[in-house]
Amino acid sequence: MKVKSILVSQPEPSTAKSPYFELADKSNLKIDFRPFIMVEGISAKEFRQTRIQIMEHSAVIFTSRTAIDHFFRISLELRLTVPDSMKYFCISEATAFYLQKYIVYRKRKIFYADGRFSDLVNVMKKHKDERYLVPLSDIHKQEIPNLLDGENYNYTKAILYRTVSSDLSDLSDIKYDILVFFSPSGIKSLYQNFPEFQQDKTRIACFGPATAKAVLDAGLRLDIQAPTAQAPSMTMALELYIKKNNKN
Questions:
Q1: Rg of the Cα trace of the chain?
Q2: Which 8-state DSSP code applies to residue 174?
Q3: pTM for this predicted structure
């Protein structure tokens, strides 16, 4: 069956050079974007109930830009002034540079890894005496506490934001040839919004093994998967599938 329309369960790319737009033009497709999940910050009241004291920590571990946003948001809501002496350990250089949105970068002690949490744990080995705060979502990789526990770091896990399903009720009468998912939360949102969803001829595409497992656990047929050796990106996987199925 030919593919004419795709719904990508993420926000629309901010750059006109996105490979999704190139794919749409090249293959004469309609590609829409709609986040199936969104991030919601916990309130200052909720955070107080955890009894976590931010100022009792000497360093913060950031695994994403979202974590940075919510750390400084909750600090502001609690009327805390984060001291200049606070150290920041970031998952990547790009995440570290994002701190400039909130602090004078050159005046702070900032460390970063190569994008892997295991590498960040190694960077932290020279700072064993710090008391670390780890801002996270309610849904996070178990690797994070496992690696910190394995190295006996003194840390506190702080849930500052949660992943919730978006309201997709306006899509109830809209059909797409392919639905593209990037997380198990997206599959959960699909069924929360459309509990009677029947796949039928709709193709399901997903990125990553955890999302693939969620697709299969939901009893859905998985038609397109990335990353693979032939298709390291989602757009490449979609293009390969479309080339094969849209032949005249």
A1: 21
A2: -
A3: 0.77
Domain extent, residue 149, equals: 40-163
CA 142 to chain centre: 14
pLDDT in tens, 73-116: 999 999 999 999 999 999 999 999 999 999 987 778 999 999 99
The confidence band for 16, taking pLDDT boundaries of 50, 70 and 90, is confident
Rounded to an integer, what distance in angstroms lies between the CA atom of residue 157 and that of residue 143?
Answer: 13
Residue 25 maps to a domain: no
Across 218-227, b (16+ Cβ under 10 Å) vs e yields bebebbbbbe
Q: Do 153 and 45 belong together in one domain?
A: yes
- Encoding tokens for residue 248? 């005249």
Please write down the HEC assignment for all residues of 68-80: HHHHHHHHHHCCC
Burial environment of residue 89 by CB neighbours within 10 A (0 to 12, 13 to 18, 19 or more) = buried
Q: Is there a single domain that holds both residue 70 and residue 179?
A: no
Q: What is the pLDDT of residues 63-84, one digit of tens each?
A: 999 999 999 999 999 999 999 9
**End-to-end CA distance of the chain, in Å?**
11
Count CB atoms within 10 A of the CB of residue 120. Answer: 24
Residue position matching structure tokens 């050079």:
17
The total number of structural domains in the chain stands at 2
Q: Give the strand pairing for 178-181 and 154-165.
A: unpaired
d(CA 81, CA 67): 18
Kindly report the CATH number assigned to the domain that includes residue 105: 3.40.50.10090
Element of type H or E holding 7: strand 5-8
Task: Please count the other Cβ atoms lying within 10 Å of the Cβ belonging to residue 19.
Answer: 15
Evaluate whether residue 77 is within a structural domain: yes
Encoded amino acid at 183, one letter: S
